[in-house]
Amino acid sequence: MNINDPLSPIRLQLMWDRLIAVVEEQALALIRTGFSTSTREAGDLSAGVFDLDGAMLAQAVTGTPGHINSMARAVRHFLDKFPATTMKEGDIFLTNDPWKGTGHLHDFTFVTPTFRRGKMVALFASTCHVVDIGGRGMTTDARSVFEEGLYIPLMRFAHGGKVDQTLVDIVSANVREPVQVVGDLYSLATCNEIGCRRLIEMMDEFAIDDLGRLGKHILEKSKQASLEAIGKIKPGEYTFSMRIDGYDKPIDLVATMKIGPTGIDVDFAGTSGVSAYGINVPVCYTEAYSSFGVKCIVAPKVPNNEGSLSVIRITAPEDTILNAKKPAPVAARHVTGQMLPDVMFGCLHQALGGQVPAEGTSCLWNLFALGGPGATDGDPAETVHAQQFSVMSFHAGGTGARPGRDGLSATAFPSGVRNVPIEVNEAVSPIVVWKKEYRQDSGGAGEFRGGLGQIMEVGTLDKAPFALSAYYDRIDHPPRGRDGGHDGIAGRVTLSSGKVLRGKGLQTVSQKDRVIIAMPGGGGLGDPRKRPVAAVADDVRQGFISAEAARREYGVAVTDDGRVDEGETARLRAVAAE
Which residues contact 479 (CB under 8 A, 6 or more apart)? Predict the structure, then answer.
């Protein structure tokens, strides 16, 4: 083997690693330059590099599966409208088309061709969530996508290095936060430009003229490794269903998974139909989270790219909630779509005889609050002089218990976004978070306990009411335990005055009231009576579970400070064993 050969296997591997570093720098540039808290604080974004056919070669580790895996399909839509042969240096393309991007109007996808010595060698793409896109705002209440905001088809953001100011003016005129939104558009363009620069530097360093051989190496190796991992699983057909809250009626998510020598096929036939409200999912987002759920269990260490994704094939019948067609409302598609990894886990649990987590909260429990004239449905005189604001803060309940380990508390899985520090939104709005703490006893009991949810108490310093846009689930149908583990506790949204709020929809909070958001806990795994007594006692000392729950759920007699009555504990567990 000649390691000085620019295309030797060793150098190809080095270049592959370097390519991942390039897209990671691309993503970090987006975070550093981003204007909205969802980009800057939560990391709700994606970044990646593609070959000239639109195949994703590498993605940044930073980012969310919904953005990354749907962006992996989006670049081909750009190439269909703007063939690579027509692209020029300095061109930048964008869209927020939910069916050709990442599933709703709040996400912009940018694509930038990379030129080296006058020849196009690759494309960089990036996506982020903007704080506002006009219309009704980030809510489940719309009855069609036309109500949900400004819809921008695939088009040029810049041509020959010159930004389309008309486009920028249209965006500015249609959103509530023009500085943040337009700032994020320029951040997307900037991060792609940095990716282009770093790729050219890499190609110069390794003395290669194109990415043809490297791209083929990446895709072939990734596909081969994925098929080898799938080959270790018992082949067959496995069906699993999960019921979630929906908006006005429950939704059934039904999947049939076929595992065979050529990969994994998932069909969502039997799933509920399209909703009248904005919780529908374009199929690109269904593919994104379903394939991510499979990869988490089957091949978590194989890099995510076109090669590894190609062996996981997802289909959903048209006009089901997982393949909603335009003009269905889709603003809160994540409420439904982020449940899909749990459905994949349910299928894989049968194939693997265990080895998968219990169900978790899965969907995000974000605080999305709006204020100012017209923000609430009350008397307009109450808000005519109110401070105008639109803030989104990412928060999460507990994840399901994992084989051999407890679930993670207040952790966003599967999205992977970070919680936004409460001080960030308090600095730019009159919103105040009076309490934010773990929700005791929320994690499902089990040999391995479900992760805890959290409780937030939120009010305003303004002399006017504000609106809460709720898009929460797991209120009527909490995360289920597995293999004898108990369910996690259900979520709940109330006012301090005692009124129970709906889990979805825009609702008004009086300036004298506070909203209390109690997030679900993850399901437990295994028989709770098998959990070590010392672990139960430690949970009580930490405040994760109460002494009452320790006795009731685990058969452990323990005081609030964690001291165990060994005799009573032995009696309780003996009785349970009978």
Answer: 342, 358, 359, 360, 361, 362, 398, 400, 444, 450, 487, 488, 520, 521, 522, 523
